Amino acid sequence: MTIIQFGRPLCSACQEAHDTITSIYPPHFAFRYHTVTGDVLQDGPAALAEADYYDVFDILPVVIIEHGGEVLRRWEGEAPGVEEIHRQLSRIT
After folding, report:
1. pLDDT tens digit sequence for 3-45
2. Which residue, 45, 52, 69, 68, is CA-closest to 6?
3. Which comes out higher in pLDDT, residue 93 or 65?
4. Percent of the chain topping pLDDT 90
5. What are the angstrom distances between the C-alpha of 65 and each of 38, 52, 68, 70, 84?
6. CA distance 93 to 54
7. Measuring CA to CA, how many Å separate 23 from each of 18, 26, 27, 68, 89?
């Protein structure tokens, strides 16, 4: 399972989402964080391709939980709650 977050610097909802995820995610799952500044993704071409694939430039933060190439849950413009993340984790463990 992978948790992917796209966020902006100085975005309180983005920071809240990041803090929630990093405080609870199990270490054996992958977590990727990508920084968006304006309409530019700061993390290189692979991250840009991922952002394009998930269509994330309109509303940030975007948090995606995916497993086996399937998106299990997506949040846009808000930080997911701890309970919501745990619910998604329990679907695959």
Report:
1. 899 988 888 998 999 898 888 866 667 888 888 776 556 667 7
2. 52
3. 65
4. 15
5. 24, 16, 10, 9, 11
6. 24
7. 8, 9, 10, 23, 14
Which is nearest to 1 in space by CA: 33, 25, 34, 22? 25
Helix (H, G, I), strand (E, B), or coil: what is residue 85?
A: helix
Q: What is the torsional sign of CA 68, 33, 23, 26?
A: positive
- Choose between 76 and 91: higher pLDDT: 76
Environment class of 83 (CB within 10 Å of its CB; exposed 0-12, middle 13-18, buried 19+)? exposed
- The CA distance from 21 to 31, in Å, is 8
